[in-house]
Amino acid sequence: MAKTPRKPPAKAGKTTGARAIKVRRSRFGFLKTRAGRYLMLFLLIALLAGAGWAFWKWRSLYFGMPSLPPVAELWDAKREPAIEFVDRNGNTLDVRGPRYGRATDVSRLPDHVPQAFIAAEDKRFYEHDGADDAAIARAAWSNMRAGETVSGASTITQQLIKNLVLDSRQTISRKAQEMKLARELEKKLTKDEILSLYLNRVYFGAGLYGIDAASRYYFGKPPEELSVPEAAILAALPKAPSKLNLRDNLEGAKSRQLYVLQQMQDLGFITQDEVTEAIETDITIIDAPDYDPQLGYVMDTVADRVKLMLPRPPGDMVVTLSIDVELQQKIHAKLNERMEKDGEAAKASQAAALVIDREGRVVALVGGRDFTESEFNRVTQAKRQPGSSFKPFVYAAALESGFSAYDVFEDAPLSIGKWKPENYGGGFLGPMTLSEAMARSTNTVAAELTQEASEESVIGIARRFGITTPLKPFPSIALGSQEVSLWEITRAFGTFQSGGLRMDPWLIEKIENSRGDVLYTRPDYNRDRVFDHELAKEMNGMLSRVTNASFGTGQRAKFGNWTVAGKTGTSQDWRDAWFIGFSNAYVGGVWIGNDDDSPMAKVSGGGLPADLWSDIMEIAHAGMPPEPLLGAEVGMEMSEAAEERITFYRGMAQAFATASSSRTGSGVRVIRQ
């Protein structure tokens, strides 16, 4: 078999017919070098650092961002404490703190009212989701071109968040949080709910928050009655509330009003004719409310009591008072008139009065002559010696101990330990019934009665009837030597008027917030019986003789055809003079004296105080037909001759019973060594 000859190997340096394959060079081949690897590591670190910084920056925008409060809390968020005082008819008597007005809802407002605010503040309100991205972009471009902030883009929802949740710092972080929270709020509330919240919380300047407050303050009407020009000028205010105050800068506000009207037209809310008519319409701003400063005594008392009733009161309280404002003003004027006439001669500089109806409603409280000169309330804050006006509690304790109005005691020198009580004006009249002793305000009989009934019993009666000031069991308590307030002694007399039921007077009818939520309403209650009905009738018979008997110390308290009962009171050295009394309709108390406790010119309770009491009660009872007073007929029907016979025969019996006796050689009865 023939062999195929082998080809000799090619010689070096010579090419063959085979094709050479070219390997492509890698683009990142340099990374295989040490320098390349270092560069790659640097870039990777820079990329991670940039991403970390961006993530940190994004997180920092929302760092410390508060969570969106519950919707109910937004109504009360960031409210300064405020109280609006109203009378029983809803008329505002005074406002302390900002004025928030009543809550309203867009559904109750004419269309042009919310439309004016949308045109002024947020034209795409019903289109965006809480933050208007298009408006933000336009504002950013405008500000960048101007090199300063010339345009904002806050929506109504964002303004709510800024005002109620966040602070007012102008930073990117706060703006980002504002937008985020605004979008959250839009998921929780409808557009109308957000707009209602805005209209109730937006600031209008002059201490006015909410459209109701602004509408009533500037136009004297609720927002439901606002016209187009009025709505437009109110919508102009939130942009610069202090600068555009309608009483100080009406022309500046009108300039902004024109812008609002034009925007309303552009949005199709009103026509050109309506714009023209609104521009030509005069804006009438009412006078600022003129609240009576003399009601300050009432307001202070109410504000203090609200704090006790509501440990955490809302910032927008509306408190309905029991006061009859017209009656209060007339009584204050009469009190001042009489003090102007008689005060200087009496050397008395101050007076106070309290009137309570038979149900316990305080209809008038005059804490002094002028609140603007002295805010000290002499009805509730002053503690003074009531003198003989305290004696009815002594007699009530005696009746409970078994005595009666026609038991006979002797008005004669008396010693109780080292204390020897004396009568006003001096002298002693001998035997007399308790009824006569009450009418004459005989000190010795009251002092002896206190020892018979016990000082503790007298204190117990006073406490049950409503006197809360601590009292001590001293013999002189019989003559009213321990201080009480006009408020508590007047309410205590209400127990006699009612036939033994304790009077719990009130100044506060109701407490609400601006949304109308009732936080407190005075409950109906059954008055506690603290004294026997028949004994109360007997007390009223004695007290009616104080004003009706020819020898009664309180005759000057009578007025008209009304039957009244009461008691005079004069403290030591004539430092205080009182008359406390009642008809079937009202219980009232009057005090006169000096704040520095200096003596008056021998003014007794049966003088100027009884006159003043008669004056103010005549005002309170005006137009009312006279009504009988429980138990008064018992004291009215007894003739003086009949009482003298009772005194004589009972006095003889008592004389025989005590002949052994307690008299000293000087004729002074000693009750206690």
Spatial shape: elongated
Main sheet attributes: strand count, strand direction, barrel closure: 5 strands, mixed
Structural class: alpha+beta
Please tally the β strands and state the result: 14
What share of the residues does DSSP label as strand, in percent? 5-15%
Subunit organisation of the chains: single chain
Q: What is the mean predicted local confidence, pLDDT?
A: 87
Strand order of the largest sheet: 2-1-3-9-10
Sequence stretches where pLDDT stays below 50 over 5 or more residues: 1-17, 147-151, 659-665
Helical proportion?
A: 40-55%
How far do the termini sit from each other?
Answer: 173 Å
Q: Radius of gyration in whole Å, from Cα?
A: 43 Å
Total helical elements: 22
Please describe the topology of this protein.
Blueprint: H1 34-62, H2 71-74, E1 82-86, E2 92-96, H3 112-121, H4 133-146, H5 156-164, H6 172-188, H7 191-201, H8 211-219, H9 228-235, H10 250-266, H11 272-280, H12 296-309, E3 316-321, H13 325-346, E4 350-357, E5 362-366, H14 391-400, E6 408-411, E7 414-416, E8 430-433, H15 434-440, H16 443-453, H17 455-465, H18 486-498, E9 508-513, E10 518-521, H19 533-548, E11 565-570, E12 576-582, E13 586-593, H20 608-620, H21 632-637, H22 640-657, E14 669-672
